[in-house]
Structures are given as C-alpha cells and as structure tokens.
Amino acid sequence: MIETPRQLFMRHVAPTSFTPLNIEVVRAKGVYLYGPNGERYIDTVSGISTANVGHCHPKVVEAVKNQAEQYMHLMVYGEFVEYPQVMLAKKIADLLPPSLNSVYFVNSGTEATDGAIKLAKRYTHRPEVVAFKKAYHGSSIGASSIWGDEYFKSAYRPLMPGVRMLNFNSFDDLAQITENTACVVTEAIQSEGGLNIPENGWLAALRERCTATGTLLIIDEVQMGWGRTGKWFGFENFGIVPDVVTFAKGLGGGMPIGAFVADKKMMEVFCDHPILGHITTFGGHPVCTAAALANINVIEDEHLVETATEKGDYFASLIEKHPRVIRTWGLGLFRGIEVDHSIDMSNFWHKTLNNNVVTDTFLFRDNAFRFTPPLIISHAEIEEAVDGLMKTLDEM
Known about the structure:
Strand order of the largest sheet: 4-10-9-8-7-5-6
Strand content: 15-25%
Order of helices and strands: HEEEHHHEHEHHEEHEEEHHHEEHEEEH
C-alpha cells in the first residue's frame, strides 16, 4: 500500500508538537496556499513574517532561476567575490544608518543571533549578555539561552552562562546593564511577546544606557524588518540606531537567509585572534542572496513599506466590529487581535483552516492572534481574510 504524503509526513518528518496543522500544500502564489484537491487558504501570517512580497513573486522566482543557472554553492563564506552577495550587502547597507555598513550573511535568524552575540563578546571582551522576558530570538543553544521564558529552556540547561533577563518596558531594570555587559539583545517591538511595543521613550532610554556603559545594543529585526511595521525596520519607529542589527525571514523573499550587520571596524575582530572567528558554509549562498536582492527591489518598486500602515488600519477597522474582539493594536501590517477570553486559542488556530484562513497565535500572549499577511495583500483579500476569521469566531 502506497502511503499518502500526509501519512509520510506524520511518519518521517520530525514533529514540534503533537497537533500539527497538517494541511497539505502543493503550490503557493501571492497570499494563497493551495491543496491537492483545490483547497485554497489565505495566508495571514506570511510563513511567520517571511513572505513579505507574497509567495512565489515572479521577480524573486526569476532571480532564483537566473542565479541557479550561473552558479550555486562555491566555497565557505568570505573568500570569493560573488556578485549577488556583494550587491545585496551594498543594498542592505544603503538602507541602514551609516554605522551599520558591514554585513555578515548566515542562514537563519537563530544563526544571526548567535553571530551577533559572539561579535559583541569578542569586541567588548565582556562576559554578560542581557535580554528580556517574553522574547524569542531563536532555538540554538546560544539563542535558547536568551529565550524569555523558562518553560521553553529549562529542559536544555545548562545553557550559555552569564545571561541576565530583564523586564521589557521597565525603566528600573535598565540599571542592571553595567560595564560588565557585552550586549543587550532585544527586538524593537517584541513579536512573540504578543506585539509588545516600547512605551514612553523606553527604547531611547535603553539606547542611552547602553551608550553610557559601553554595551552594544543588538536589535533583532527578524520579524519586524523589511517593511512589516510601515518602516523599513522596526527600530526606525523609535528614533534610535543599534550597534548591531539582525535579519532573516522577510529578507529572503521565501529563500533561507539571515544576516547580522554592524560597523566594519567591529566586524574585523573576526579576522584575528582567532582567524576565522566566525564561519559558515552556506551563509550568503548565491541563490539566496539573489532572491533577497530581488525581494528588496520588489518592496521598493511596489511601495510596500508606504502602504503597510493604511492596509493594517483597514484590517483593524473591519475585525474590530466583531463582538468577540476585545481590541487590536500594532504597527503597519503586524497587528495583534485580543479576543474573548473564553475562546480556546489552540482550537481557534485549527478551526480557522475550516474557513480557509491560515493564522497563528503568540508564544507569550494568551487569548490573542496575529495578522501579519504578505505586504502585497489587497483590500479585497483583507476582506476575505476578515470574513473567514469572523466566521471562526462565530463558531467558537
């Protein structure tokens, strides 16, 4: 008997939960995912803030095909001059403040976190890393060490030593950042914390404290970057400039790529004592960097940064009409929706599929879900998504 793809999935693909969504996808285009029997789902989470220009954007696909025909993997990072890699690095640097001018390419947000922490420790010669509760920065041992919830990391201890966890938005806690602190790692806006936005100038105060103590401020833009908040980068909403910034997800147009960016003089510490201070086999892969460059050009050419806030506001104006929606909040096309606390969110997450909507909840905020669709989403597609979400709320 021949097993179906779904049966093979359940048998051979390593699980992360006992209740996967378990929908079969045979193709994706724009804001839609398609199943083998004609099912169509509207994707309101963009593969977790990844498909910012939609699935299989023709210009990204063309870039992938063209580069694959030229060359793919050549050699370990940082030795060969590869056109798509250097052009992407220049494009990223041009979009960032002048002090963020040197790009180290990796394969994911987790790797970007680990690389940025290594850079900070090597550059400052300090042992301590500060991060914040309700934060998520990746799942390697290094990145897991700064997970903002003990539930998710207790099973893997001992983790990286010298980590101090503070409260996001707490002015009092900033005093715990000292001359012993190599770096502070935070998102400008906490994603998995439930779209937790800095209040009353707190992020500016954090920047000032880091400057005063000689601590490097690392801003994680993995979910908030590349137009998601109505700015190119989340930190731009708060008038600060980090010392190091990390990217992944929405950078690649659907291809796996990450990066951490700092000043060139800082990056040069990886060249000596020891040489090869940080290396990666596939970081800056030519096909991925070609896709990422095309992706950024699409965001620019289609003015997706400029339209994100108006589209997000339109979504909020519609979903807030439902009686079981308590409130919405957010920036651009990253919106949180708090619902009636009697609703079982795990059940809601699965039931939206019956109404042809893919959505997602937060790791660290109960009774809420996110709306982070591709930035290309139209008003008609927003209305379609809201209709499916409202039907699900009616059924709960």
